[in-house]
Each structure stands twice: as structure tokens, then as C-alpha cells.
Amino acid sequence: MTDLPHTTSRKMGLVIDLDTCVGCHACVISCKGWNTENYGAPLSDQDAYGADPSGTFLNRVHSYEVQPEQGHAQLIHFPKSCLHCEDAPCVTVCPTGASYKRVEDGIVLVNEEDCIGCGLCAWSCPYGARELDLAAGVMKKCTLCVDRIYNENLPEEDRQPACVRTCPAGARHFGDLGDPGSDVSQLVAARGGMDLMPEMGTKPVNKYLPPRPKDTLSQTHEQIDVLAPFLAPVAEDTGGFLGWLDRALDKLPGGSN
Ligand code: SF4
Ligand code: SF4
Ligand code: SF4
Q1: Which helix (H) or strand (E) holds 208?
Q2: Nearest to 13 by CA among 85, 61, 78
């Protein structure tokens, strides 16, 4: 049993926009790359080029087809990593103190030297955000790229999580969700950002922005109607081959001129 801090000075986390995520998996690859190359043991793969490959990933994207009550089905891409919960069951369940939540910024981490690989934290996490690395025998999880965001050896623009820096759709945002004036908090307020599975009582810091309603067929027809008056003069004064043909036919006996 490991204690959680009563409060944290900041609540650093991610805001993920389900409206603009295109499911490209760039964030998955950049996360795996950064966390394999830059600290501790690499994130291992098993049977990587065989018939049944598996591996350790700190961020995964699942895609779902959702059928609304009205209209067409929508494809929703759902990126998922640790949500750095305020009431994190993966910390309190840990028998060695290897799992902990930082007082200064709320980031949930694993001290791999104290981890015995018992798997209790993975069992207790309702989001499936922890992965036991089979080669290293220790638990791995999203670190919120704690080795990037404070790293003064990196250019300032790179002091963001690798997944945020990489996302080509601008669907991932990083900041202090405990500060109501921060960009991420304002984004959550403006777009109705949501907790994932709030009924679990974990109080996740990360937030998801819901997909916007898609255009409907009737809206498309309205757009065409709006354009129609602009098309009319072109039809009356036809140019090019059709205009030449129109004028040539008019000159024939029985034409209007
Ligand atoms: S990189 Fe961005 S757009 Fe691509 S899957 Fe990840 S969140 Fe979605
Ligand atoms: S796997 Fe490691 S971090 Fe998770 S509960 Fe066991 S000792 Fe703690
Ligand atoms: S914050 Fe870092 S460790 Fe966490 S999902 Fe993004 S790239 Fe991976």
C-alpha cells in the first residue's frame, strides 16, 4: 500500500481532441521511440517479425465505428495512455512503493528499481494503461515525458511530450489542468472536455474533447442552394467550346437571332 499526496501543486496532463485525431499512430511510434532510446531499459518487443508479434507500448490508438441514432456511422480514433489520475488506484495498490504520484506536478511514475513485477497496478488500472515489460520484468507506463518537459538540453519548443510534439493533426495538447487560465483548461472549458469513465472515481487529469457532429446530407444541399445564384450568370454567358457552339446554333435558320 502506497500513499497518494493529498494535493499536488500542478496537474500536468494531456488534452486529446477526438474530433481531429485521424488515427495515424504517429503518437504511438514517437512515444515508443523516445521511451526506448532515452532512459532505462528499452520498451521490448516479442516475436516482432514473427506470426504473433507483441510489445510494450505506453500509448495506443484504438479505432471504433460508432452508429449515431440518426445519420451515418462515424469512425472514432481513440488514443489512450496513462491519465495521471488524482485518485490513482495503481499507486495505492503497489506493495513496494515503486508506483508514486509526484507532489510538484501530479505525474504518476514507476521507480523501476523498486518494482517486483507483481502486476497488481496493471490489474487495478481501469484504463489498461500499464504494461508489464516481459524482457525487463518491470512495469512500464506513460511518464508524461518527464525527461523532455523539464530538459534544458532540448530546444524550448521540444520541451513537450513526444506524442504532442509529433501529432500532425494538432490533436494532442499538454499543460497544467490545475490552472483554470492555462491554454489546456480553456480548451477543455470551450469544447466541453470530458473525463474517461468518471464512474470509476479515479479523477483522471487527462481530458478528452468530444467529436463534433458531422455535416449531414441536408446541410450539403443547402450549401449548393447558396451557391446557385453565383452560377447563373456563367450559364447565361457561356464561354469556351460550349459558348461557340451556342452562338453557332443561333446563326442557323430557325435560331433565335
Ligand atoms: S498522432 Fe495525433 S492524429 Fe495521429 S493517432 Fe496520435 S493523436 Fe491521432
Ligand atoms: S508491478 Fe511494480 S509498480 Fe506495479 S504494483 Fe507491482 S511492484 Fe508496484
Ligand atoms: S506523454 Fe510521453 S510517455 Fe506519455 S504517451 Fe505521450 S509520448 Fe508516451
Answers
A1: strand 207-209
A2: 85
Report the alpha-carbon distance of residue 27 to residue 35 in Å, rounded: 12
Let me know whether 246 and 138 are in one domain. Answer: no
Q: Name the domain count of the chain.
A: 2
CB of 180 within 6 A of ligand 2: the answer is: no
Could you tell me if the CB of 116 is within 6 A of ligand 2?
Answer: yes
Tell me, using a 6 A CB cutoff, whether residue 81 lines ligand 3. Answer: yes
Whether residue 4 lies inside any domain: the answer is no
Measured CA to CA, the distance from residue 242 to residue 18 in angstroms comes to: 47
pLDDT in tens, 62-83: 999 988 888 888 899 999 999 9
Does 28 sit in the ligand 3 pocket, CB within 6 Å? no
As a residue count, the chain comes to: 257
Structural domain harbouring 127: 12-209
**Which residue has the least CA distance to atom 6 on ligand 2?**
118
**Does residue 35 share a domain with residue 101?**
yes
- Write the DSSP symbol of residue 194: B
With a CB cutoff of 8 Å and minimum separation 6, the contacts of 96 are: 2, 114, 115, 116
What is the model's pTM? Answer: 0.82
